[in-house]
Design goal:
The chain is α+β, with helices and mostly antiparallel strands. Helix content is 42%, strand content 19%. It has a five-stranded antiparallel beta sheet with strand order 2-1-5-4-3, sandwiched between helices. Strand 4 (127-134) and strand 5 (140-147) form a beta hairpin. It is globular.
């Protein structure tokens, strides 16, 4: 994993990309563009852009596209979503700051969840860092960064949290988003 010598420069470059005009219809590229910026800022093995109404998943976009795709994966993910500790915190408190699953659960506790056993193990998600931003309709947009080998460092949590307010602003500016 590359070491970023100047994380503020990387953040600045990412923000320029996030707000840059696009040749595509408004809103079309926001999920992949937002995920691309997030994963350049905080490297991850996979990432997802999710739209929630409370703990209910309405839509998602994953990078790489085949992440979490296996027979029955969508049903299993939806079934176990109420077990997700970060989402429960974000929904319950309205505080969408960057949080790791490990901020709530030990590795043993996490691996005992049906969410891990039935979905995340097959999707090779041993560690996750996520943020959420509110939508105009009362829902949430979530961005999750996933790793297989090691957890996210405190500095990476801070960087994703700095990006969070900009993802919220960019989502508001893009009328094609589920707001």
């Amino acid at each position: 994993m590359p070491v970023v010598s100047d994380p503020l420069r990387l953040l600045s470059d990412g923000l320029a990309e996030l707000y840059a005009p696009s040749d595509h219809p408004v809103g079309l590229d926001f999920p992949p563009q937002g995920l691309g910026v997030a994963t350049r800022l905080v490297p991850a093995d996979s990432s997802s852009y999710n739209h929630f109404n409370g703990p209910r998943l309405l839509a998602w976009h994953a990078e790489p596209a085949d992440t979490g795709v296996f027979p029955g994966s969508e049903q299993l993910f939806r079934q176990h979503l109420p077990e997700h500790p970060v989402l429960a915190c974000h929904v319950g408190t309205g505080d969408g700051r960057a949080l790791r699953i490990s901020d709530f659960l030990s590795d043993r506790q996490y691996r005992s969840l049906g969410l891990y056993r039935d979905f995340y193990r097959a999707a090779e998600v041993n560690y996750q860092l996520a943020i959420t931003v509110p939508t105009a309709g009362g829902g949430l947009i979530g961005v999750a960064l996933n790793r297989y080998g090691h957890d996210f460092r405190a500095a990476e949590v801070t960087l994703l949290d700095l990006l969070r307010v900009h993802i919220e602003q960019a989502a508001i500016l893009l009328p094609g988003q589920p707001m």
